[in-house]
TrEMBL record:
It comes from Halopolyspora algeriensis. One of its GO terms (cellular component) is periplasmic space. It comes from the Bacteria. Keywords: Signal. It holds the Pfam family NMT1. Coiled coil: none annotated. Its main location: periplasm. SUPFAM superfamilies: Periplasmic binding protein-like II. Residues 63-270 form the SsuA/THI5-like domain. The keyword ATP-binding does not apply. Belongs to the bacterial solute-binding protein SsuA/TauA family. It is found in: Periplasm. This is NitT/TauT family transport system substrate-binding protein.
Amino acid sequence: MVRSACRADRRRGSPSRAVLALVACLSLLVVSGCGMLSGSEGGSTDSKGDLTTITVGTMPAVDVAPLHLAIQNGYFEQAGLNVELKTISGGAKGIPKLANGSLDITFGNWVSFFRAQQQGVVDLKAISDAYQADKGTFLLMRYPGRGITSPDRLRNEKIAVNTRANINELTTLATLKLHGLSREDVEFVVMDFPDMPTALKNNDVAAISVIEPFISQAHKLGAETLADTASGPTANMPIAGYAATGTWVENNRDVAAKFQRVMSRAQREAGADRNKVERLLPTYTKIDPSTASLVEIGTYPTTLDASRLERVTGLMKANGQLPKKKFDIESMLFHAPPKE
């Protein structure tokens, strides 16, 4: 269309006017074409200016605040991506959805990712880190007046966890072991995090193994801290990240690289300003702003680091979740090439 307009202008008027018209048309071509030809993340992914849509599994937890920050601030769109979110109840629940193609990328805990990889459930590639525990971010909670005054009083009692054999359960087990209890001494009940505070108040369970922002919700309902499960041997434990199948990453390396770079930017921004996280929480967790102001926030790592993630595999081996031989974390990590 642009080229045909140029030819029409050259046929009319003097040679000098034709030259001017040609220059103007060439300028239009450069301006209109730069978005198509540029390899920058700010451009679109095809000549029509369309965004590449990816479906990402997520949970209503403080861990994913940077994901929502990136969507809200348009960072994914700037990179040529349109992110559609689907809620999952736990990290383990997202893995089958990766395998059947209903999710492209999912948020999940490292324990579930490593177990699935080790068991051959699906070949996974970690694309981004997400969250690391800090003091007060993973708690075992009880309701006062019911005789559960310390973790050793949980023998033969029910404890709510969001899924089995995940980071939530393993950090709880590590705490119970410090108080002389084993996996066989308690009954784990699977329950979504948002349901845990009310279930505890109603005495459906004796304790809940819970994360933010539901810790703060439970406190508002009168619950108390029984133990910090991210302390002692599990202090500063890597908790969660984002992963896709190896096949998806191989077929979409540019998209995976863009996702990783956007998340690194958002993780850094969220980690530097608590207020941004606090303002976001009510928009996707449905807690009120007053509760959001009480939430304990962990760390948002900006890079994938195999040596740091070895703490997770060490915890898994100690609880019989992995064989004693070395687990190859590095082969699971996707590292985007440097931007040109």
